[in-house]
Amino acid sequence: MSKAAQTDLFGGIHTMVRQHGAKGAVAFARDATNGVAAGQAIAPHVRILAGRDGRKLADSAAASIIRHHEHDHEVGYSYSAWCLAGLPHRDHPAGEDWLIETDYAQMLVRPGIRVNDDGTRDALLVPTGTLTRLLLIDWQTEAYETRNRTIVLGNNPNALLRRLGLTRGGPVSRKLADQLERLCRCGLDFKIGTDRQGVIVNERLVEAFRYTTEEDPRTKRPTRMIERLTLSEAFFRELVAHPVRVDRKAISEIQTSPRAIDAYLWLSYRLPALAPST
After folding, report:
1. Less Cβ around it within 10 Å: N or C end of the chain?
2. pTM higher than 0.85 for the full model?
3. d(C-alpha 155, C-alpha 225), whole Å
4. DSSP, residue by residue, 116-184
5. Which of 222, 244, 240, 223 minimizes the C-alpha distance to 231?
6. Mean pLDDT in residue range 156-182
7. Are 226 and 209 in contact (CB under 8 A)?
8. Could you tell me which residues are beta bridge partners of residue 192?
9. Cα gap 155→277, rounded to integer Å
10. How many Å apart are CA 181 and CA 202, to the nearest integer?
């Protein structure tokens, strides 16, 4: 996709929202795509707004237009690779890996294993959903701005939820602790090339982490809270070398949809010239 086409994509969404409003832009896009013959060209921004997450993206665009005029942004950062290859939206069976393929590379996400004091092993799941994406953006933003690989999260899940812009609550707190451990224990295999010739890089997002385990008063099951972590040097180096600027307030408005967050990150990566006003 050319730079001009990329600009038309993101600019087209904003133009339609300016002209029709968020609700009207989605309705216009869906009307425009109804009855279109197979193979007939549809403008990329129209196709995106007509999709299942079109309303969320339209609402985010409307809010970003207002924030742009009011100079109200909350800058965040993401490693460029996460803008092109997202993690799963829903849970997969414990121990099952996740393969992400693009035109240029493959990324295999391997779930971790927890070894207990008695020697038993618990197979974990691959990190998924909105909590994982919000955590990654939070970690990357702090690491990039401070130029420090160590992230202090604390031992209070409700405080971390507020930091992520989420409502506190028992079920969400338990899910947060679970996704934290999944992220800290998972491994990544990057493959660039083909079966005949290429390069494979094996690495982890997190090099080390410190945790405490307490019994959940509701479920009576142990809950492990990650209090401090250190990003792997390789991941940190790539983040600093290839950051993508995002608006965390815009992301907070679509935080219930991992698909919408992925679309927003992809647009932010594709249009670096417009990133300051996203």
Report:
1. N
2. no
3. 6
4. PTTS-EEEPPPP-HHHHHHHHHHHHHHHHHHT-SEEE--S-HHHHHHHTT----HHHHHHHHHHHHHHH
5. 240
6. 84
7. yes
8. 105, 199
9. 35
10. 19
Is the Cα torsion angle 256, 260, 266, 270 positive or negative in sign? negative
- Dist CA 139 CA 134 (whole Å): 9
Using DSSP's 3-state secondary structure scheme, residue 52 falls into coil
72 pLDDT exceeds 60? no
- What is the C-alpha separation between 190 and 205, in angstroms, rounded? 12
pLDDT per residue as tens digits for the range 205-249: 999 999 998 877 777 777 889 999 999 998 999 899 999 988 888
Q: Which residues, at least 6 apart from 126, have a Cβ–Cβ distance to it below 8 Å? A: 87, 88, 92, 96, 97, 98, 109, 110, 111, 182, 186
Alpha helices in the chain (DSSP H): 3-33, 44-49, 54-70, 80-84, 129-146, 157-163, 170-185, 233-241, 248-252, 258-270
Residues 6+ apart with CB under 8 A from 49: 13, 16, 25, 26, 28, 29, 30, 57, 58
Q: Are 243 and 253 in contact (CB under 8 A)?
A: no
Task: Give the C-alpha separation, 64 to 122, whole Å.
Answer: 43
Whether the CB-CB separation of 54 and 48 falls below 8 Å is answered with: yes
Amino acid at 243: P
- Is the separation of the CB atoms in 232 and 133 below 8 Å? no
Structure tokens at 271: 């249009």
- Stated length of the chain: 278
What residues does 187 pair with on adjacent strands?
110, 204
Which residue is it, tokens 């959940």?
216
Tell me how far apart the alpha carbons of residues 246 and 234 are, in angstroms, rounded to a whole number.
22
- Tokens of residue 151, six digits: 């992230």
